[in-house]
């Protein structure tokens, strides 16, 4: 009959109280709109705090600069305050509006620590080093820890369980101590790797095989130490989630249907166990831009973390604000991508939110 309703497969529909329409996937506009509004508000709040926080500190960047340079005239000091948006002739509201106007034009001010160079230029030179090193190490540690934790959880009670306490113990060692031990063992004694820096003395950054080889050689030791320090958390988290998922009824049904163990492991158990890992991975990806300050300090690596540390010590507020803003935006973007990835892998999320 033409008016009869099509029969729906109960397994395809699932157990959620959500209406399924064949052939068309309903776009979760409410889910997308609520998330967009939340992150826009968070971005505004972060930028506002980024504006007011340096102005709540004792003194300002110009005062710190004048303390190091006694030969600056009062007129030059006033010009510096106006250049940095610290003009006392303007009210705090006017300074706030000027800050937004400059920000929307991509102007983050100038850095006193780097000879009045634009903050965007200073950050753009340090950012690739941090993203390249910390980003690569984070992705490698997440992949090894998640896959390894899934296999260990699947084979619970086997000899593979010994990797969990070992990696967890290595993760509890303070990073600076782990880095110093690595330098003492592999740089000082064995002389396999350089002690620090991103490339050799006398080298110029350029796209040549020699320079790329230098970068890989100098970055191997800090990258390996980051992987070792963060591997335990990923492995332990995935292993524990696998133990929880393996007790679910759908795993028992899949095994009872005679599905191959590999399909049950990766298609059913690991796919659901990895969901909480995605949120943590998104935060890690976001904080990659912030770098690992201790790592960059131990290995004298010219990344964002060391840049932020130097700016803090020099009270270079414009540079500090620029770095904080880049970190905030990177974390928000990573969370947005994690929300969509989470909703894609688990439709119940967007159904509940919508």
UniProtKB/TrEMBL annotation:
Alphabetic keyword roster: Membrane, Transmembrane, Transmembrane helix, Transport
Source organism: Homoserinibacter gongjuensis
Pfam families: BPD_transp_1 (PF00528)
Domain ABC transmembrane type-1: 127-338
Domain of life of the native organism: Bacteria
Compartment annotation: Cell membrane; Membrane
Topology relative to the membrane: Multi-pass membrane protein
The protein's name in its UniProt record: Peptide ABC transporter permease
Bilayer-spanning residue ranges: 36-53, 126-154, 175-195, 215-236, 281-302, 322-345
Annotated family: Belongs to the binding-protein-dependent transport system permease family.
Chief location: membrane
């Amino acid at each position: 009959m033409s008016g009869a309703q099509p029969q729906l497969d109960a397994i395809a529909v699932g157990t959620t109280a959500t209406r399924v329409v064949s052939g068309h996937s309903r776009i979760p506009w409410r889910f997308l709109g609520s998330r967009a509004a939340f992150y826009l508000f968070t971005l505004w709040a972060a930028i506002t705090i980024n504006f007011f926080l340096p102005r709540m500190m004792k003194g300002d960047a110009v005062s710190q600069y004048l303390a190091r340079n006694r030969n600056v005239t009062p007129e030059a000091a006033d010009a510096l305050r106006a250049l940095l948006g610290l003009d006392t002739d303007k009210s705090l509201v006017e300074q706030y509006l000027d800050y937004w106007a400059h920000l929307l034009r991509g102007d983050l001010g100038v850095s006193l620590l780097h000879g009045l160079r634009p903050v965007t230029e200073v950050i753009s030179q340090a950012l690739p080093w941090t993203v390249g090193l910390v980003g690569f190490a984070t992705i490698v540690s997440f992949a090894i820890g998640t896959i390894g934790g899934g296999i260990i959880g699947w084979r619970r009670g086997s000899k593979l369980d010994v990797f969990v306490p070992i990696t967890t113990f290595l993760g509890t060692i303070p990073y600076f101590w782990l880095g110093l031990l690595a330098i003492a063992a592999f740089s000082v004694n064995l002389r396999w790797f350089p002690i620090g820096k991103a490339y050799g003395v006398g080298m110029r950054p350029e796209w040549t095989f020699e320079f790329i080889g230098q970068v890989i050689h100098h970055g191997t030791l800090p990258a390996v130490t980051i992987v070792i320090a963060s591997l335990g958390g990923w492995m332990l988290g995935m292993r524990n989630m696998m133990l929880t998922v393996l007790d679910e009824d759908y795993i028992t049904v899949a095994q009872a249907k005679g599905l191959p163990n590999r399909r049950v492991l990766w298609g059913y158990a690991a796919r659901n166990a990895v969901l909480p890992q995605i949120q943590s991975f998104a935060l890690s990806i976001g904080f990659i831009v912030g770098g690992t300050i201790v790592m960059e300090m131990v290995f004298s690596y010219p990344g964002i973390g060391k840049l932020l540390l130097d700016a803090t010590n020099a009270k270079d507020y414009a540079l500090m604000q620029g770095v904080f803003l880049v970190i905030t935006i990177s974390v928000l973007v990573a969370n947005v991508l994690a929300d969509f990835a989470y909703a894609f892998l688990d439709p119940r999320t967007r159904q509940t939110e919508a």
